[in-house]
Amino acid sequence: MENNYLVDQLLAARPEQKVQLLFDYLTKHGDENYEEDVTQMQHGLQAAYLAREAGQDAPYVTAALFHDIGHILADDPDERNNPTLKDDNHEDIAATFFKDIFPDEVIEPIRLHVAAKRYLCTVNKEYYEGLSEPSQKSFHLQGGPMSVEELASFEANPFHKEAVQLRIWDDTAKDVKAEVPNLETYRKLVLESLLLL
Ligand SMILES: [Fe+2]
């Protein structure tokens, strides 16, 4: 399988090569796969841009850039055309994929970015109402509102605030008209994040 092969390649590669492998993967698949009206590549680049503009450290910008790579890995990326049939667990797929490649500062916000949507929907009704329609639909597939126990367990995660922040950028990074810096812009930041491990 391509994914397993890629993981083996990544684990064996030097840091600079890891960045190249990840960029190649995103470039190869980013335009084939769509989330809502923007491509995966546009979505990741917009999220990373928002994180960088907010002055975030390298790992959180990196998390924003790659937060939806699980949709590509799961080969189930199109939330618009296939929004309600099943949940692809793309956040867990990405977290597993990045294990031993990135530090927790990158992995945990990605792993929690779907839970963060459930969290925000639970504590803030206006947030739910402001979501795009596919995102509202997938919210119910992803478990719907959190229980009191789930809220407490989410808030106990040391990266829950970063996950909520990532979620907000995620929701904003769907502008079909936005023009943002290209993937190359993030080479140094991604390398820096890899070296934190
Ligand atoms: Fe996303």
Low-pLDDT runs of 5+ residues are none
CATH class: Mainly Alpha
The CATH topology assignment is Hypothetical protein af1432
Class by helix and strand content?
mainly alpha
Shape: globular
Question: Please, could you describe this protein's structure?
Answer:
With 197 residues, this protein is mostly helical. It has one domain: Hypothetical protein af1432 (Orthogonal Bundle). It has twelve helices and two strands, in the order H-H-E-E-H-H-H-H-H-H-H-H-H-H. The protein has a two-stranded antiparallel sheet with strand order 1-2. The two termini are 26 Å apart. Bound molecules: fe (ii) ion.
Secondary-structure topology with pairs:
Blueprint: H1 2-12, H2 15-30, E1 34-35, E2 38-39, H3 40-53, H4 58-66, H5 69-73, H6 90-98, H7 104-123, H8 125-130, H9 133-141, H10 148-156, H11 160-172, H12 187-195
Antiparallel strand pairs: 1-2
The structure holds fe (ii) ion.
Fe (ii) ion (FE2) is lined by residues 35, 43, 67-68, 170.
